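Aggregate trends can hide what the representation actually does to any particular protein. This step matters because it turns folding into a mapping between discrete strings. For completeness, the protein is quoted in full, as a sequence line and a line of structure tokens:
=====
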Amino acid sequence: MELCVALDLPTKQENLDLIKKIQNYNVWLKVGLRTYIRDGEDFLKEIKKINPDFKIFLDLKLYDIPNTMADSAESIMGLGVDMFNVHASAGRRAMSEVMSRLEKFENRPIVLAVTALTSFSEEEFTQVYEKGIDDKANQFAKDAMDSGLDGVVCSAYESESIKNITNKKFMTLTPGIRPFGEDAGDQKRVADIAFAKNAQIDFIVVGRPIYKSENPAEVVKKILEQI
């Protein structure tokens, strides 16, 4: 299991300050939609200047018509990131076109599909997708695997089931991890590290418990010791 630190702070400088504090640890860094829209490609370059060994997860959740998603995926190849994601609800054809477009690249990033956002309650999710989270997440995971993707983004509660219907090498990345029982905030389906381990999760994403701490490096160290 690997740790991915969410760079969700209000300003570019705050994110850079956080990165500098944890630069000596072997972690992934998640650059989300707000951060990328605000700070752009230059921010990715600044991350690598701080520590070229940092691996970057570009969390933009691509969701559009198949050709536009494939065009966007090809453009992402020029950014030097190590992982990005798309929405599984864009459908098999869109996911397949993304992977087909990336075939010509020798070292492509890891590509994941988002199943059910961890902010959804069961009721809210069913209103949108007309199925429960577990059933639909499993379906989305199967679609993603059949389309050639490397894994999915899901909550800790769906990971084990997804591994069982796909295979153990099919990756799961889980947001909403509260390593030491912290407040859930705006997330509905959260879990701690022990649960994540039992669920065979490959990547855990941790944000607030790290960047709201007075000593982010110490929190990262404690998480890495547990995983």
